[in-house]
Amino acid sequence: MQTEYFWTPIPGLELPEQLPGRLIVIEGTDGVGRSTQMQLLRNWLERRGVAVHDTGLTRGRLAGQDIQTAKQGHTMGRRTQCLFYATDFADRLETEIVPALRAGYVVVTDRYIYSLMARAAVRGMEQEWLRKLYGFALKPTLTVYLKISLSALLPRALAAGGFDFWESGMDYLAEETLYDAFMKHQTALLAQFEAMTQEYGFTVVDAGADIQHAFREVQRHVWPVVEDMVPAGSGAVDALHEPAYSPREERHEERRLLSDRVREVLAALLEESE
Amino acid sequence: MQPSEQYRGRLFVVEGIDGSGKSTQIDLLYKWLLSRGHAAFFSEWNSSPLVKRTTSRGKRRHLLQPLTFSLTHATDFADRTERSIIPPLQAGAAVLADRYVYTAFARDGARGCDPAWIRELYSFAVRPTVGFYFRVPLDVALDRILSGRPELKWYEAGMDLGLADDVVASFKLFQARILEEYERIVEEFGLTVIDGTLPIGVQQQQVREIVEPYLDGLLSRPDDGRIYRPLREGEA
Questions:
Q1: Which of A34, B6, B36, B145 has the fewest CB atoms within 10 Å, i.e. the most exposed one?
Q2: In B, residues 73-132, which contact A (CB 8 Å cutoff)?
Q3: What are φ and ψ of residue A18, in 5° steps?
Q4: Which 3 state secondary structure label does DSSP give A206?
């Protein structure tokens, strides 16, 4: 991939013009099914012989832990919170994403600067400031935006255990109930993503339908980006059409690694192909 | 930066390289303001308890790169701004800051960060009523620091930049870079320069004269006979 920053390079880091890896971003609001798609994608790519490194927000070694602690206490101001996330992101970019890209991995990340900017923007941070702040981020090879309507999101949020304090924006909204806050917050977030779709050239995937359908779409968009990385003799031509299942003898191992939901989809795909 | 005129309070900040004598001066200014009956509020660099854990973890384990070094300090500064700078200014206090955004501009600049990016990063800061810069020649500052405190910390000495293998040698080179950055910043932001080689009392006299015209209308300190001690977290 081309080494390209949104605005300004990371200080003190010399990168070649071309990086051997690829950076694939999975974006979308809370509960849209990002982690399911991440797992499916990783599984599929690794079956094709492509080395995958997956990562996500607030898992950094520098500030990740403290962000979680601070969230428990709800003691952070909005700008402080925003910069805390930016710090963690910068650390992850420099110490995890960039080294993996240099080593030729396909880095798949569960959210990127877009979610961080959307969350900060709905909390009153200036768009212009956010774009400058995150100007050190690398431009991804592909950004898949899992798009969903609020009405399709609502039952998923309920089924997943109800409304979360942060995912309902209760830290900044003055709504009486979690439901009211959830609706308002998610409406605002979806509007932010919508606005960014054009600006950043998101590849939109309809995540409102079932998981299999969405994954087929994800595969279709990811394939051209990684095609040249697939080892020779892997049957590239029909790779896209081959379901993401594993041989029977390996399935026991697979079961331990994958979530119920992913296993369900894999089983369905397998059935479909037989 | 954001205009300070929207607040009833006043913001006075001191800047300068290590050993410039700025902390001594702002300490004296703080006590003088209190003795004159004003509400004064002290705010220090690296003072946010919230961000402290991250900053010290990063520093202890040498996890910080120029970008993350810059961002942890910006996070700390945001917490300071939201917690101990804007609210006291709204209340009408004299807020005193030992080191401010200019420290970040100078240090991060010396670490190779893009000056335009750093200035954007800190654009939410309140512009000080008066920003003092304590100017001392490099050898005077180095002598003040090195004669009294031989234990230099990794980042303080700029060891992360690989300027020299020896800590003291690295510290000297790093301070020289910072000094250069400061001189540019003084011009750019019109800081008020105080000659840091003058006797302490003479400097303080100058500082008071400059501050005095801005003290009308400030909130008064409590007049209940109790002794209020300022809460101060670790030194910069």
A1: B6
A2: 74-75, 78-79, 81-83, 108, 111-114, 116-117, 120-121, 123-124
A3: -120, 135
A4: strand
Check pLDDT > 80 for residue A238. no
Pick the range with the lowest mean pLDDT from B103-107, B109-113, B140-144. Answer: B140-144
Lowest-pLDDT range of A21-35, A228-242, B172-186? A228-242
Q: Is A137 on the interface with B (CB under 8 A)?
A: no
Is it the case that residue A262 has pLDDT exceeding 80?
no
Those residues with Cβ within 8 angstroms of residue A267's Cβ, 6 or more apart along the chain or in another chain: none
pLDDT of residue A255: 42
Tell me what ipTM this predicted complex has.
0.83
Please list every residue in chain A whose beta carbon sits closer than 8 Å to the beta carbon of residue B113: 11
Neighbours of B137 (CB within 10 A): 11
What residues make up the domain containing A199? Answer: 22-273
Assigned domain for A11 exists:
no
pLDDT at B3 over 60: yes
> CA–CA separation, A173 vs A75, rounded Å?
15
Beta-carbon contacts of residue B153 (< 8 Å; ≥ 6 apart):
B59
Which pTM does this prediction carry? 0.84
- B53 and A66 within 8 Å at the Cβ level: the answer is yes
Confidence label for B235 from pLDDT (cuts 50, 70 and 90): very low
What CATH number is attached to the domain comprising A208? 3.40.50.300
Domains of chain B: 8-214 (3.40.50.300)
Give me the residues of A, 40-99, that contact B with CB < 8 A. Answer: 61-63, 66, 69-70, 75-80, 82-84, 86-87, 90-91, 94-95
Domain count, chain A: 1
Q: Name the 3-class secondary structure at B40.
A: strand
Cβ <8 Å between B117 and A136: yes
**pLDDT score at B236:** 35
